[in-house]
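Researcher: Next entry in the queue.
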Amino acid sequence: MPDSKIDPRAWQALAVVTLGTVFIGFSATATNIAINDIEAGLGATSTQVGWGIAGYFIGTAALLPLGGRLADRLGRRRVFLAGVLVFGLSSLIAGLAPNVWILDLARVAQAAGGAALLPASLSLVLPMFPADRRSGVVGLWASAGPISAGIAPSAAAALIAALEWRSIYWIIAPVAALMWLVGRSTLVEVEVAAPTNRLDVVGAATGTIAVAGVVAAIMQGRVWGYTAPATLAVLAAAIVSGLVFARSTLRHPEPLLNLHLLTSRGVWVTNIGNFAVSIASMSSWLVWPTFLSGVYGYSTLGVGLGITIAPICASTSTIVFSRLSDRFGQIPFIRLGTFLQIIAMTWQFTKLGTEVDYWSDFAPGLLLYGTGWGMSSPLQNSLALASIDERYFGELNGIFNTVRYTAGAIGTAVVFALLTVDTGPESLSHYDATLMFFAISAAVAFVVSWVPLNDRSAG
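Model: Structure for this entry, 459 residues:
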């Protein structure tokens, strides 16, 4: 029950900002359940729909740091409410989209809204609670993401089965409107320092171009040819943009990302592991639904229920091993978790075929992968934080989440490049290539986890 000593508005505010994290998690995975329905409804190809999925990751990766800086400059309440408004309107547009390109642009706009509301959310609520209750508040807020990921597949499938694919976007709009109204009356502006320098606009622009260019070269390369002049030109533009981004970020007095933190071994090692884990974890949500529908012939509802076991295991594992790491340290669990991810993908690589056997062939991979992810990804973030001074925690979290969503965008591009055939027996070799790619990325994370760190990082 709510504490009588705490203003009821604090709990309302917590509900508002927590719903924001639920939106972001739900939207990241719900579309994957609806891919076939969207393709049929809009007459689109899988690559065209894939751009909306990749665009969501690109937009989030590129705009999260900018959202944090704008919140610090313009006011966290103002930026949070603007993010909620953008997220709700873009979700409505996505649900009304007459073609796939409007849908894809709306998905990028969703990412922009999420990138605005997420950095400001927790900092708005914590001052409303006494210091001795803030750890619990952080726990409630942080758990919303994994829980929404666990609910999203089955919830999205149920909505699609009962209504249509557009309903997974429509449902967000009225809730966002309610959030905006409640947020206006409950959220209290946090005083922000006057800006002393201009925003790193060059860094924001070139960082976005760099990520988008790499994704475009991978996804469109299968259409243009990977040695075609257009593909090579896009890749070259991405590389040049990446170099300009690094130069601008390292020289700017208030960079969007504090790349100087990468001089800490604990930071760069854990972020290599973060990238390797995330490149598979965020794009495997594409492969599992596609396999269940395209090879096993599951209905949309069956697909949603079939993959729910993975996020449930991930959520449970995150809670259990985050607590155990306080006693035994993060590194042993990160190593075991990444090893379980290797086993999970290798299991599915060797077992999956055209014969439908969910519980013995498909489900064990989900169980192992979800459990392994919960043992590794959250603890990688914790391990990175243990290697730096407390005053840099916010900036490091910005790097960690940007790397995570960048990996998701690149992983999504690779999946669409490999899965040129995703239905019928002839698709099995394509799924094998994708699963092996996931196993290799997990192996990279496992190997990196053995790089020696300093005593403070070793936890």
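Model: The mean pLDDT is 86.
Researcher: Noted, moving on.
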